[in-house]
Amino acid sequence: MAGIEAMQLDARLAQLGVNRQIFVDAAEWAASQARMSTKFDAPSMPGITFWSRANRYLAECLTDRKYLAKHLKDVNETSTPWNHTRRDSILRVVHPAGTHAITAISGSGGIGNLDRPARSKNPKGSAMAVIVENNVKFERRTGQGVILSRDDIEFGGELEEMPLWIFLYGRTEAGLAAELSRPVKMNGQYVNEWAERIPLFTISDPGVDVEILDAPDDDNGVHIPVQFTG
Q1: pTM of the full structure
Q2: Rg (CA), the chain
Q3: Tens digits of per-residue pLDDT, 129-141?
């Protein structure tokens, strides 16, 4: 990545209230946690662990004033920290101004490579579909002339209407790659069209299948009722 391009990407991340190192640290810690899984765990445990721990790391750091003051420019210990929610099983950190949120999910394709398409690794449900659709038409609410909702008070805006950025990660031939991207369309149940993609890093391969079976945001599967008769 050229120096000037890297500077531009870093500046864009700063506009979103984050930096590249936060995501590197989140991925490395999540990978170390996933590697603790053994053959006695469920086969999906490394992927679920990585997904959960990556989101947890972002939440623990960005909701911590001391961390923000130490690692981010123009932030001090009196600054308002990010918020966090697990609504609809979408683990999100919410910017203190309510302008956007971030979640981590596994991906596939050309992650971190803007010359190749990328998409979510696993199918997503209706809750994610609503958010992605709103990413296209969202207009920031001012709150003037309306009664503030619970979300307005807690997050600074309606959570489902808040632009969502995805920390998309996956294993590639070069190692563990990631990008921070804003989705605008789902084809079927997969998020695969983006308004903006910010390459983050490629680090050493974690040695575990981090992409497998991360948790869906809701359950739209087919359920066959089973009736037991005596």
Answers
A1: 0.82
A2: 18
A3: 888 888 876 544 4
